[in-house]
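Risk register update: the risk of archive-format incompatibility is retired. Evidence:
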Amino acid sequence: GIDLKNIMAQALHMGDEMHNRNKAGTSLFFRAITPFLIEAAPNIGDLPDIFRFIDKNDHFFLNLAMAAAKASTEAAHGVEGSSLVTTMARNGTEMGIRISGLGDQWFTCEAALPDVLLFPGFTKDDVNRDIGDSAIMETLGIGGFALAAAPAIVQFIGGTPEDAAKYTFEMYEITMVENNTYTIPSLNFRGSPTGIDVIKVVETGITPVLDTGAAHREPGKGQVGAGIVRMPAEAFNKAAAAFVDRYLEE
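Archived output:
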C-alpha cells in the first residue's frame, strides 16, 4: 500500500498546505505509484496517457488527501462529551457541521461568499456561494489551517505570505491540539492547529478559515477563482447551544 498520511506530512514540508496547493503531494504520489503501474499495466502503451493525466493536474493528490482526512476525522466522531468538529461541508447554498459528541445531527446555515482572486474574464458577480467537500482538509487541521507552510499559495488565492501565517496563528485559538504528524517548517516545525472545538469558536468569535476554489454561479462554467472563506458563525452557534443543552446545563 501507499502511506497517504506520510505523503501529506512530507508535502507540508515542501510548500503544500494540502487544499489549494498539492504540487508536492501529487509529485510524491506520482513517484510512489509509478513502479506499481508499470508492473500491473496489461498494456504498457497506456501508461503515457495515465502519466500525462496526473502530470497535468497539480490538484490530483487532493482527491486522495480528502479521503485520508475523512478517515481520520470519522474515527474521532461519536465520542461522548466531545465538542470536536468532525465534519464541515458546503453545497453552494448551505454549509453544515457535525460535532463528535452530538451524533449525526447536522447544524446548518447559509453558505458564505468566498473572497477570491478571480481568474481573467470573471467578476465578483460570477462567484457562487461556497461549495464542496474539501473543507474536510481544514476539519483535519491542514489546508487553510496550515497556510503558513505554503507561502507561495498567495499567488493563487491572493494576499501575502504574512497573511497566510496570520491565519495559521489564528486557528491555534480555536483548536484542541498541535498535530504531531503534520508540522510546519516555518514555525520551527510546530504542529498544525488540529481539532476544531465548537466551544472555542463561539467563545473567541473566531471561525474556521478555508482557502477554497470558487465555482461559477451558473452550472457548467467551472471555477472562477480561488481565495479565502470564513465558515459562518451561525452553524457553530447552533451546535454550541445544542452541546451545552446536552452536556453542560444542570
